[in-house]
Amino acid sequence: MKKIVPVVLRHQQQGLEILAFRHPLAGTQLVKGTIEQDEKHEQVAVRELFEESGLVAEANPTFMGNLSLRFNQQNWYFYLCEITKVTSDSWLHYCHDDGGLEFEFFWYPLHQKPSEDWHETFQESLGFIKIYFDSKK
């Protein structure tokens, strides 16, 4: 199964921060979603980011690579998204997934070790993203 992960970053004095959220039933996560029929990966990244966070991304996000997760062998495809509007440090967004849930969004320091509140798949994903940006230095 393929999943698309839209990655949104911001630069702070202490380093890069990545968009993350607290799911009311499943801990701390990154935005991710499933490809719908006849949908391109880039379109999924933009759509999922909007549906789950309310953020509008510019078209044609940058492909960062894919990761086959050790936990469940799912293939996750990562796209760096540029958002069209600067956001606050945290916010709540009502998402219609699973009958409707409120997600608490915040910025997470990319180089900070994730706590146990992060599911193993997202811990692995953060490691993948960190390696990607370390290789760009």
From TrEMBL:
The Nudix hydrolase domain, residue ranges: 1-130
Residues in coiled coil: none
Pfam families in UniProt: NUDIX (PF00293)
Keyword presence, rRNA-binding: no
Protein name per the record: Nudix hydrolase domain-containing protein
Record has Hydrolase as a keyword: yes
Cofactor(s) the record lists: Mg(2+)
Top-level taxon: Bacteria
Keyword vocabulary terms for this entry: Hydrolase
GO molecular function annotations of the record: hydrolase activity
